[in-house]
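Illustration: ITA10 protein.
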Amino acid sequence: PPQVSFTLELEFSCSTLLDHAEVTLQATSDSTEATPEDNVVKLSVPIRYEPNLFLSSNTNLHRYEVHPLGTFTHSSGPEFTTIVKVQNLGCYTIQNVSLHMALPALGHHQATILSVTQVLAENATCVLQRPSEGTQVVPVSPEDLLHMDR
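Result:
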């Protein structure tokens, strides 16, 4: 039997968001057919909207001096604040969004170069997790930093 393939492209308005679309397809012919009842099919397909998220960050400390090898002290450096924003630029709500951040906290000889002192969350739930025993922590060695421009 002959087959026809085609693609439907549907556009939706932000004022009317649907969770499914219903399409009725009907094949007609000038010929007389014995079973015309099987020429109609109704399809119902779920609709999933693509998220439009915008992630940005800003910090109040744009430059920090790292002491040469051998002169590193264990005293605390300057405190700085980093703001991370996740914005929904779409026209519908988004659920179950998770943001995972890995902070570079270890330097040469496992020296702590960063520690989180406070987490303030707005319209979000934040969980600060230390690396577990099985987690592979890769320290940043001094020679790796020579090739980085930022």
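Reading the tokens back as a structure: Residues 142-145 form the longest helix (4 residues).
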